[in-house]
Amino acid sequence: MSVITILSGLASAVGYVAFNGTSPDIIAGTTAVAAGAILAMLSDTMIPEAFQEAHDFAGLITVGGVLAAFALTKMGA
To answer: What is the pTM of this model?
Structure first.
């Protein structure tokens, strides 16, 4: 567990240095890819369990959660 923490910190530092001074479009594209990766990981891990509980509403609940997160990020901007 501590190895993952250290590697995540190093990756964050490398990303900060590598993307320092780049255009906002590149940063937005990179952030979108990262968000897609997180959503793919969550759906692979959690949606089968959610489908057992919520059945047909699992997809709708997932979309609602993504839209709520998007709206919350825009409220802070």
So the answer is: 0.54
